[in-house]
Design a protein that fits this description.
The chain is an alpha+beta fold. Helix content is 51%, strand content 21%. The chain is built from 6 helices and 11 strands. Strand 8 (207-215) and strand 9 form a beta hairpin.
Length: 302
């Protein structure tokens, strides 16, 4: 056995270790150069270990600060959520009294004030609902759903608004869609949000087309409009919390849509060109295959 030169490990002014290699050429017939490489690797590992030990107090302190800050933010978030929930109850009462006043008041100017107040209360209630959905997202309630029937129901809800705005609304729904396991109310919310956004972005004389199709084991629902479109930097940020182009928007609608799609193991895609309109696509995994014309419990479900 033959010892190789040893090395003293320094970290700044601190002596942190000593390393050496004793070679048994009969058991390990490596060259001296090989053992020097092993020695160098050992020195590097020892230096990194020593450096890590000297940094442990710093890391621990920063970790403790992070934990305290996280706990404080969590507590603040829980408090804010509770307060928002409590605020919604008196707003509901105020809304009820306003509706009673609306029936009793006959002066046109007072009727206008009541209408404005009622609209602002509705906006506040919607904002609170959005915040609560972000703070307390619920798990999906799964059921087999005919997605085309659901889309048709949502289109019917906005047909009146589209007519008043002078926007044409058409559907191109594939009859071959399979049944899907979905949370009915959550997916309805997503589709209605996309339709409402398309209406808000499309001027009079414009067109909104709703499509569905099934390809590559994925089910697609698309809402295409001929509105103003968006620049690439805006498209890249779609779904970011509090990002909105609406004057009275909360910026939470599309964020919630993305979260709902993620809970369905799907995704939301956006294609848009400034001045040429936008297409929002909901992509669901083909997670339940069956006869597209099958029924649930003997009746069609929408």
């Amino acid at each position: 056995m033959q010892p190789l030169p040893f090395a003293i490990l320094w970290l700044g002014l601190w002596l942190v270790g000593l390393i050496s290699v004793v070679v048994n050429y009969w058991l390990y017939p490596y060259s001296t150069q090989d053992w020097l490489v092993i020695l160098a690797i050992g020195m590097a590992v020892s230096c990194l270990t020593a450096w890590g030990l000297t940094r442990l107090p710093v890391f621990n302190s920063k970790y403790q600060q992070y934990v305290r800050r996280t706990e404080a933010l969590t507590a603040a978030g829980q408090l804010a959520t509770s307060l928002i929930h409590e605020v919604r109850n008196p707003l509901t009462s105020v809304k009820g009294f306003l509706q009673l006043l609306e029936k009793k008041v006959v002066q046109p100017e007072l009727q206008e004030y009541i209408t404005i107040m009622s609209g602002e209360l509705d906006r506040a209630t919607e904002l609170i609902g959005d915040f609560l959905q972000v703070a307390r997202p619920r798990e999906p309630l799964w059921e087999k759903v005919d997605l085309n029937a659901m889309v048709r129901d949502m289109v019917m809800l906005v047909e009146g608004q589209a007519f008043l705005r002078g926007v044409s609304l058409s559907q191109e729904l594939s009859p071959e869609l399979p049944w899907l396991w979905l949370d009915r109310s959550q997916v309805k919310q997503v589709v209605l949000n996309l339709l409402s956004n398309a209406l808000a972005a499309t001027p009079s004389g414009g067109r909104i087309t709703v499509r569905s199709h099934w390809r590559n084991r994925q089910v697609w629902v698309q809402v295409e409009d001929t509105g103003s479109g968006m620049p690439p930097e805006m498209v890249a940020r779609i779904g970011t919390p509090f990002l909105t182009t609406k004057e009275n928007g909360t910026g939470l609608g599309l964020y919630i849509c993305r979260q709902i799609m993620a809970r369905h193991e799907g995704r939301m895609e956006v294609r848009s060109e400034l001045g040429c309109g936008s297409t929002f696509s909901l992509v669901f995994p083909d997670n339940f295959k069956a006869d597209p014309h099958a029924t649930i419990g003997g009746t069609n479900s929408g």
